[in-house]
Specification:
- This protein is α+β, with helices and mostly antiparallel strands.
- Among the domains are: 24-60; 106-188, Nuclear Transport Factor 2, Chain: A (Roll).
- The chain is built from seven helices and five strands.
- The protein has helices at 13-22, 26-39, 42-60, 66-72, 90-93, 117-123, 128-136; strands at residues 106-110, 152-157, 163-169, 174-179, 185-188.
- The protein has a five-stranded antiparallel β-sheet.
- A hairpin with a 5-residue loop joins strand 4 (174-179) and strand 5 (185-188).
- The chain crosses the membrane at residues 46-63.
- Keywords: Membrane, Transmembrane, Transmembrane helix.
Length: 189
């Protein structure tokens, strides 16, 4: 009782497909398709020239799955927030309190006997490069070179320590120098 199992025959599917494709009469199919295409109206032919590639692109392009994002969004719970509201009427509030001008921004120096502008700059820790830039725009009347005893020198310094505005003031006149956006100074009377 020798029972052997027969091995199943292995089929070469690639060879089988090649045989079936070679058995097709392509010239007949091509001729039939061409005759059907020509039976279509020109408008339909043109529309198909456009629609077929567009549909193929839409089928082949992957789109993001929006259902996963919609599921992951958590509902927002309503929260109460307290807000401070001024409920006093304008008459109850009184007049607004105005703060005096900050004298910290402006510094003043009274010129003493023997002082020069260079000494004033050194005494107030101002940059000598700023003094040189001021002298370059001083003008013919020379208000910086000819400071007098009792004259008031007011200046405003930026946060970075550079001079922003310089004012020379005496009883008869006042001259101001402003720093431009380029870094140089401009004189005004």
């Amino acid at each position: 009782m020798n029972r052997r199992k027969k091995k199943p025959q292995q089929v070469d599917y690639i060879q089988l497909a090649k045989e079936k494709v070679s058995a097709i009469d392509w010239s007949h199919i091509k001729h039939e398709a061409k005759s059907r295409w020509l039976q279509l109206p020109k408008l339909h032919q043109r529309a198909l020239y456009i629609l077929v590639p567009v549909v193929l692109l839409l089928v082949l392009i992957p789109f993001p799955d929006t259902t996963k994002e919609a599921d992951s969004v958590e509902p927002i719970e309503s929260q109460r927030v307290s807000v401070a509201v001024n409920t006093e009427s304008l008459s109850e509030q009184g007049e607004p309190k105005t703060q005096p001008l900050q004298s910290e921004q402006w510094k003043e120096y009274q010129v003493k006997s023997g002082d020069t502008l260079a000494r004033v700059f050194r005494a107030n820790n101002l940059a000598m490069a700023d003094l040189k830039a001021l002298v370059n725009v001083e003008g013919k009347d020379k208000p910086l070179s000819q400071i007098k005893v009792g004259q008031q020198v007011r200046f405003k310094v930026k946060e970075d320590g550079n001079l922003d505005i310089l004012q020379l003031k005496d009883a008869s006149k006042s001259v101001m120098f402003y720093r431009n956006s380029s870094g140089s100074f401009t004189k005004s009377k």
